[in-house]
# Entry
Amino acid sequence: DLLYTIKFEVSKVVSMKILLNRSRAMQLQKLLTSKNSILCALLYVFGVVGILLFADMRVNQNTFVSENALLPGYVVTKYQQQNIASTLNRDFQSLSSRDAQQQWIAHQFRDLGLEVHTHNFTVRRPLHGDQISGKNIYAVYRAPKIASTESIVFSTTLKTAQFAVPLMLSLCHLITKQTIWAKDVIFLVSEEEELGIGAWLQAYHDVNTLPYITSSPIFTHSGAIQAALHLDMTDQTFDRLRMFVEAINGQLPDIDLVVLVRQICRQERIPLLLRNGPHDIGDFLGNLLGLHANMAWQAAGRVSFPSALYHPYNIHAVGVRTEKSGYRAHFSWQHIGRFTESVLRSVNNLEEQFHTAYYFYLMPCIERFVCLSVYMVPCGLIAGAVAVRILGLWFTCGKPSPEKGSEIFFSNIDVNTIDCVYPFLHGVIFACINEALTSMLLDSTNLVYVLGFSQILVITSAVLTKEREDWRLHQAFVLLLHLFSLVLLSMLNISLTIFYAIPSSLVFMLQCPSRRPLMILQRMLMLLVNPLVLVVLYSYLYVILHLEDSQESVLHSILLHSTSLIESKFTLGVWTWTAYCFLLLPVWALHWTLKLPSECGVTDADDGVKSTDSGVNSSGSGVSKADDGVSATDDTASKSDGIPESKNSVIEGKDKTE
# Structure
């Protein structure tokens, strides 16, 4: 009896809990269906406002060093080789040909006792139909306190920074006389910028990740590369430095390395700016423009500086460029030499790999950053708005079942397989055709024609689709794929996710209008959020905001920014174009092929009211038809409209009339 009583009480509690959960679920379902548009609008607005607040000083935070071994106060600089650098610069600038300069550099490295080698490479550019051949010169200084298990790279290029080569050689004079180094130092001088660095890294790690680059093998190796510093020195005097932190595919180095460079510049009293960063720290508008510039390069995934190519090999690197703004230059060889020595020696003190600081962050300016836990909240609000819209569509795309009460089931759902499969095939075919044609296109203008023709095909494909009565289910399916794409991109490139989610989520969540002018407006908005159109629009916005001093025309700059995404995929391994073709474009095409019926603006409450009215009208018509002598078939039809036991009432009314 006791066991029976316990079992009865437990079953009663469980049943009550089920009823309560069911009641709460029905209340939640009612809230999501009746207040769906309001909830979506609030979540979306809060998410966009939260993203704009990244530039506010109360949202972002000060940068700091997490690894004590990197603190620059532990390093006492001893660079006094500015006279040697000036002498080497005069000798180097007197050489006229590129081959003579490379031979002179290799000879200077050998005289200092370093292991010197040359590395030849060839790059085939698909959008230009030509090849680029070059030569890298690299020298390895073996640290006396370690068996070549770790190393640091100090690189520069001959094409844009000829004044950095004498500085590098003068720094070699200092390093070879010291015994404090615990890591090998690799000095790399590349003939080309990004292409030369990428070819050398591919050969050094003995991989073939860049198929359009062929190079000779590397004969001399050092240890695992822990960090890298790339220096572009355009003149022997300067008044400030500009730092580039963006890596390939929107990745960023460890923030400890970024803060290290900033603190060393502060210690040497050298002004340091971030890419297109604000000059006045604390200005909201300046921080917002700086945040937009940095996120634009991250979203594109392009190579902003040769230092960006180190990150795919798990090498944290930053790039620094000297600038002369036209005022009196206060800094010369000694200052940049002390800066370079401090960076290399601070990294030399690191006893393990970078692991204690942030890898995912956004920087509105050089002094502030937004960490992962902060910027994911607004992104989650925008994704939450999409999720709420999906649930609202899901709860309203079925019909109430008379057997199950208020539960939802789906009947007569006609899912057109072609409508779902064709957009994905379009993305695959679109990417394959472009990959095959890029080797035959001699001008990037031809590529624009190919892109435009492909988009015309997918736009006109909406004419071939039929009107859908189950448009809510189709839109919920497309929004679910859109939500999955946002979640996937947020883990790979948060800047690309933000730039794509803000316009596309708003357009995808719009209520399907039934009036023709509103439908035309929605189609125009859909064309604006096409992934390829967004590339052009964001390129135009970047050119207008951040390249106002450029000598090139606006159209040429837009074409250069747009087509470089495709060429970088083949030559440098940028996967942004692949994400456009295989992920973003098919989802957009799915939403574009959604063809609505003539009347689709009925809300959930209206559905319930209309069904009630139709039941009342059918009951009344059943009575009137019974008075006229209509057969029992009409009674059955009225019963199927949702009026139970209507046949008996009709027969009783007929008898009374007789």
Notes: The longest helix spans residues 2-34. The CA atoms of residues 49 and 276 lie 23 Å apart. Residues 399-415, 598-658 have pLDDT under 50 and may be disordered. The chain is about 55% helix and 10% strand.
